[in-house]
Every structure is written in structure tokens, then in C-alpha cells.
TrEMBL record:
Record Pfam families: Glyco_hydro38C2, Glyco_hydro_38C
Glycosyl hydrolases family 38 C-terminal domain residues: 255-358
This protein's name: Glycosyl hydrolase family 38 C-terminal domain-containing protein
Any one of the GO BP annotations: mannose metabolic process
Matches recorded under SUPFAM superfamilies: Galactose mutarotase-like (SSF74650)
Species per Swiss-Prot/TrEMBL record: Arachis hypogaea
An annotated Gene Ontology molecular function: carbohydrate binding
Sequence ranges assigned to domain Glycosyl hydrolase family 38 C-terminal in this UniProt record: 4-171
């Protein structure tokens, strides 16, 4: 028996465009910082498309909800971006925000796919985004939250924005995916708001934008404020601060995923390479992070590489690695990885898509004297 769409099951009975029963209203706003187009499709769907001056991408802010279910029909709302690109059934979606996986509509590389659900069978979850390309152009769409995406028509990208359903899919929840907010005894469906980011690039040029803006979305700047009296701002000792050596630039193809103090004098450091092999002609190369310049005011006593989850030393983990019994060729594909960390130079190498985790112990929490610090670097 076919199950209805619900918390776990996605099984739509078709795609139906939402048409307004009146002429859509929109407003165009222009200013020195950005330009915006405000659109109100109906009482529960609106969007703002904005372009910031100096930016090369468009930002689409959507507001959806409460989705009406007075007709006793659940709805799963998507948005589509349509181009004339010849994408040959192919699109790319990220895997947990890291590498992009090639997807081919109605096809699987490991088995002969019997297409029973042409919509749901071609949907994939993303945390970073989706892109399509032809022989000349790439269209990239980044997201600010995990959503389902697909490309059901060549040259088209679609993203799931909101769902409100009235039937349980009998997968254990025991209730329909019909979330509501109740205020003063009055209940209505959820209203959600989010942003999408779009950019068109020449073929092979989109990776820099996807990785750079994707990292900005994942790790936005943290604003900090002070209670200092405005009349006494002159007493504020320093308006700027950098924890790393002022002459050092963190590699553009690298991200600092984790910096956590475990206890006094010991930290957990996790570094990641942002690019895949051959993803970008400039940044899909070995990256190096200089720990002495990352912690210029600390004296590093010991660096220990750990497993990814930091629950054991990497050397011990390698000893426990399972030796699989295989049929056919036992030849393994050579994997490029960064080398051991030299205890004197303290430089961490990162190969494309590599993540490395370290425990770093400092000799003391006191500032290293300037002369000693210069000698160390």
C-alpha cells in the first residue's frame, strides 16, 4: 500500500504551480547599498530578491506560511529556478557540506534503477547547496539550512522550502507533519523564513564562490558589544584584536573547524581543506597551516594528532584499522594525505578534502616574550 507523505516519507502526487487569484504586487527599492524587488504572490507566500552593491550574487529571502490546509490537502512547497542550460540530466549536490556528488536523474551507478517515484527518487538532502552546468556556464544555489533539492528538468533547480501535511506516514511518529503555533487559544501553521544565494559563473569558475560564501554562511561573523559609556570611548584600550600573527594570512582553501579549550593549557584544534581534487585550478592544492603563527603568543609544548572524533591518537587508530577480505583485485587507490607534523616547524599539511584533528599543549598560558616569540617563528 502506498504511504502518504509525512515526517519520513516524501511521496507527492504531482507538481502544481501556485497561481495568484489577482495581479501579483511587487515593489522595486534602490539604494546606495543594495537593490531589492519585493514580491507578494499570495497572503502566505512572499519573497525579496536583493543584490548588494559590490557583490556578484543575488540573495532571495522567502517567507512561507501558514500553508493553508482548509481543503484537507497537505502541501509541500518548492521554488524553482529555470534556465536554458543543457544539463543532460546531471546536477551536483553536497555531501554533508563537503564534497559535491554527481547526480544523474533517474539513474544509479550501482544498480539498474526502476523509476517508481520520479520526484522523490531524484531528491537529495543538502547542507551547502546544489549546482548545474553545461559546456559554458554554471548555476549555483546555496542554502542557509538543510533542505531537499533536485533537478527534475534540464536547466532547472528546485528546492523544498516548507511542508505541511495532514496524514501520518505510519513510520512511528504517530501524527501528521502539521506543526502549529498557538497564541491565546488560536492556532495556525508555522511560518518560515529563509535565504537562498544564487550565482552564475563561467564553467569551472564557480567553486571559489561556493566554498567562500558557503563558509561565510556556516561560520558567520560574531558581533560583540560593550556597555562602555559613549562619553568614555577614549578609555577603550584597543578597538582591534587578532589572535594570530598579524603578518600571517590563513590559507584561503582551509577552514578552522574547531578551536576548543579542553582544560588549562590544552586545546582541541580541527582543520579542514575546503576543496576537492581538481575542483578549482588554484585552490585544489596542498594547503599548509603554520601553528607557530596561528598561536604567536603561546609556547607550544606538544602536538598530538588524533582521530577525527578525537577519542584516540591517530597512530593507535591506524594500528586498529580493519583488514577487509576482498574478491578480485586488492590494489588500493592511492590517497593523497598531509604528512606528519614536524615538532620543530609545526606546520600542518592538508590535502584536498582532508580534515585533521590535534591536541595542542602549551608550556604555559603566559605571553611569550617578544624576543623569544620572534626566535620561534
Amino acid at each position: 500500500m502506498l504511504k502518504a507523505s509525512g515526517a519520513y516519507v516524501f511521496r507527492p502526487n504531482g507538481s502544481f504551480p501556485i497561481r495568484s487569484d489577482r495581479q501579483e504586487s511587487f515593489a522595486v527599492l534602490s539604494g546606495p547599498v543594495l537593490d531589492e524587488v519585493h514580491q507578494q504572490l499570495n497572503p502566505w507566500i512572499s519573497q525579496i530578491t536583493r543584490i548588494f552593491k559590490g557583490k556578484e550574487h543575488a540573495e532571495v529571502e522567502f517567507t512561507v506560511g501558514p500553508i493553508p490546509v482548509d481543503d484537507n490537502i497537505g502541501k509541500e512547497l518548492i521554488t524553482q529556478f529555470t534556465t536554458s542550460m543543457k544539463t543532460n540530466k546531471t546536477f551536483y549536490t553536497d555531501s554533508n557540506g563537503r564534497d559535491f556528488i554527481k547526480r544523474i536523474r533517474d539513474f544509479r551507478t550501482d544498480w539498474d534503477l526502476q523509476v517508481n517515484q520520479p520526484i522523490a527518487g531524484n531528491y537529495y538532502p543538502v547542507n551547502l547547496g546544489i549546482y548545474v552546468q553545461d559546456s559554458n556556464t554554471e548555476l549555483s544555489v546555496l542554502v542557509d539550512r538543510s533542505v531537499g533539492v533536485s533537478s527534475l528538468v534540464d536547466g532547472q533547480v528546485e528546492l523544498m522550502l516548507h511542508r505541511r501535511l495532514i496524514h501520518d506516514d505510519t513510520r512511528g511518529v504517530g501524527e501528521a507533519l502539521n506543526e502549529t503555533v498557538c497564541i491565546a487559544g488560536s492556532c495556525e501553521g508555522l511560518t518560515i523564513q529563509g535565504k537562498l544565494y544564487l550565482k552564475i559563473d563561467p564553467i569551472g569558475e564557480g567553486a571559489k564562490w561556493r566554498r567562500t560564501v558557503g563558509q561565510e554562511l556556516y561560520s558567520p561573523l560574531l558581533l560583540a558589544f560593550t556597555e562602555q559609556d559613549g562619553d568614555n570611548l577614549s578609555n577603550f584600550q584597543s578597538s582591534t584584536f587578532s589572535g594570530i600573527d598579524s603578518s600571517y594570512s590563513f590559507p584561503n582553501n582551509t577552514a578552522l573547524l574547531t578551536l576548543q579549550e579542553l582544560y588549562s593549557g590544552k586545546i582541541l584544534l580541527r582543520l579542514a581543506h575546503l576543496y576537492e581534487i581538481e575542483e578549482d585550478k588554484d585552490y585544489s592544492a596542498m594547503a599548509s597551516v603554520e601553528l607557530l603563527k596561528l598561536f604567536p603568543n603561546k609556547k607550544i609544548r606538544k602536538v598530538t594528532e588524533m582521530s577525527l572524533s578525537a577519542n584516540q591518537e591517530r597512530a593507535e587508530m591506524e594500528k586498529k584499522r580493519l583488514a577487509w577480505k576482498v574478491e578480485g583485485s586488492t590494489k588500493e587507490t592511492k590517497v593523497v594525505r598531509g604528512g606528519p607534523v614536524d615538532p620543530e616547524k609545526l606546520v600542518v599539511e592538508l590535502a584536498p578534502m582532508e580534515i585533521r584533528t590535534f591536541f595542542i599543549e602549551f608550556a604555559s598560558l603566559q605571553t611569550v616574550p617578544e624576543a623569544e616569540n620572534q626566535a620561534a617563528t
